[in-house]
Write the structure tokens for this entry.
Amino acid sequence: MRNQHAYSIKVYLRKGFIILFLSTMAPQFVPCFPSISLPMDIPTLEGHFRFEAIDHAARDFGNQYQFHPLAVLYPESVADIAKTIEYIWQMGPSSDLTVAARGCGHSLQGQAQTHRGIVIDMGSLRAQPMQVVHDGEFAPYVDVSGGEMWINILQETLKYGLAPKSWTDYLHLSIGGTLSNAGVSGQAFRHGPQISNVHQLEVVTGKGEILSCSEKQNAELFHSVLGGLGQFGIITRARISLERAPTRVKWIRVLYSEFDAFVGEQEHLISAKTTFDYIEGFVIINRTGLLNNWRSSFNPQDPVQAGQFSSEGKTLYCLEVAKYFKPEEADLAEQETKDLLLQLSYIPSTLFIAEVSYVDFLERVYISELKLRSKGLWEVPHPWLNLLIPKSKIHRFAKQVFGNILKNTSNGPILIYPVNREK
Ligand SMILES: Cc1cc2nc3c(=O)[nH]c(=O)nc-3n(C[C@H](O)[C@H](O)[C@H](O)COP(=O)(O)OP(=O)(O)OC[C@H]3O[C@@H](n4cnc5c(N)ncnc54)[C@H](O)[C@@H]3O)c2cc1C
């Protein structure tokens, strides 16, 4: 990995470590304004606009900003979106009317909102069928609507024994929402982020044209829209690359007391030829005493009761890895897991292994969501921060930040894992 600065999320992704600070804090709301009306000659659509009872479109997962729209469009077709955008385009530069696509609204800072503009509810297009193609001359893929959720794609493709290759930690997000960012998780070291696993897009441009784009066709549009933060067009359909789906997962967590060993072994694992299928990690700061609950969200059904481990108040680093397999590959997966663990220098008493289904593994954050919702702790402010740090700066960064600037992690996890530059 080279040590050079970069200025877009796609370029940053090729540089080093991804760090996510996940926390909570008091809300900070932007004042709302009384609504005004759209001009009366709005286009005739298959779907409809709604002007009232649309407060939900002024909220997101970050729960810190509220920008109240003038209207929400519930499209029934891609043509509805195209007509609406063409109409706004024709209003000319003197118009202040803005548009935001909204997938699942899990943004952090109002990115899917628009102040007195039009929010396009992409979920309305979910009724459009997904098409899994798996027996032609091409590698398997699925064609899906831009408003479709990743969890639904997983459920549909599993019917064919297939699944997307690259995920986010949480699947109740839309295709358009994650492809407008990047879509990074513990599989990105091997497959790249989700935006590297897209063959083709259908996009409604800022002028209201409906265009197909790919590496070969309208390539500039393709590369602008992927990771384009919703600023270069609206993704109405995407063709996502698939692979044979595993059915079972060995899910492993181990602790380190030294950052250098933790991060060195993460880097070793993402570079090794035979390695795990998912590699992440997180930081545990200033949790004094017994650390039994460091794995509490691991798997609620897991019967294993591992021994107790005392942190003595030190900052600890948890490596989280997973090995995927099918039942007939169980022995090989077992052997490869043992061999890989033998290469690592974690604190031996902290090894914790669970075996779960592939779906349960991918739905791990949703299981946490249900728990947090039951305690009223899901719809709270989330001032999350994502950083990409070059490899050359990661040790200095860790020394300054973990346990020095940050004094504890009780308000939310800090995820940290390396990604391969060439992916
Ligand atoms: C619990 C949780 C866990 C997460 N884990 C991860 C993770 O592991 N890895 C990761 O990379 N991210 C992760 N995220 C972040 C998530 O990927 C982004 O917030 C993503 O944008 C959310 O998708 P959404 O459908 O809710 O998007 P929205 O919030 O609806 O929209 C996000 C942005 O995309 C634009 N947009 C939405 N749909 C379209 C479209 N069809 N065409 C063009 N632009 C569009 C919006 O205008 C907005 O700018 C996580 C978020 C949450 C809440």
Notes: The CA atoms of residues 162 and 302 lie 26 Å apart. The first helix runs from residue 9 to 12.
